[in-house]
Amino acid sequence: MQTFLRMVLMVSIVFLMTGDGPCFAAEEQEKKILVAFFSWVSDTHIIAEQIHKTIGGDLFEIKTATPYTTDYNALVNQAQLEQRDNARPLLAERVSDMDSYDTIFLGYPNWFETLPMVLFTFLESYDFSGKTIIPFCTHEGSGLGRSVSDIEKLCPQSTVREGLAIRGGKVKSAEDDVTAWLRGLGMIR
């Protein structure tokens, strides 16, 4: 009987040391999440805050070195010019340790069917290989447009998950939509 108990004890120790035992199944390393967003008005910021409040992680606001104008018509002209010229506006700040994040929620307003050009700068500034990018945007009728395919082109070595598009006028009442989307992604139960 003692030999049998010793054998069971030794097998248990091997399982514990190798991580193959049942004790380690529940201790899977938690993935580090970044909620990065660019917001001209508060709409995208509000959605980013809702995501952050629900799943945690770190929050990072993407800002241009030279802030965009607050005048809508002037902004439209500037955004169209940037898109036409394939511009890369300079970033005001960088994420200090992008390598430590596994999952990046990426938020932005949809400008002319895609990302604002500052998001192109952001995505080209880091190596997203092996990371998961989950886009979310605010819009006034164009949904995600071609922004997801543009993200996939900019970050071909990453996994781009299903995005969320929230109409600007519904941002303040979108919490249930955000929660349902996160649940559908398996980010919450």
Structure at a glance:
This protein has helices spanning 2-18, 22-25, 42-55, 72-84, 117-124, 147-154, 175-184; strands at residues 33-37, 58-61, 103-109, 132-139, 159-160, 164-167. It has 189 residues and is α/β, with parallel strands linked by helices.
Descriptive overview:
The chain has 189 residues and is α/β, with parallel strands linked by helices. The protein folds into 2 domains: 1-26, no CATH class; 31-184, Flavodoxin domain (Rossmann fold). Helix content is 39%, strand content 16%. The protein is built from 7 helices and 6 strands. The chain has helices at residues 2-18, 22-25, 42-55, 72-84, 117-124, 147-154, 175-184, and strands at 33-37, 58-61, 103-109, 132-139, 159-160, 164-167. Strands 1, 2, 3, 4, 5 and 6 form a 6-stranded parallel sheet that branches. Helix 6 links the parallel strand 4 and strand 5. Helix 3 (42-55) packs across helix 7. The radius of gyration is 21 Å and the shape is globular. Mean pLDDT is 87; it is low at 3-29.
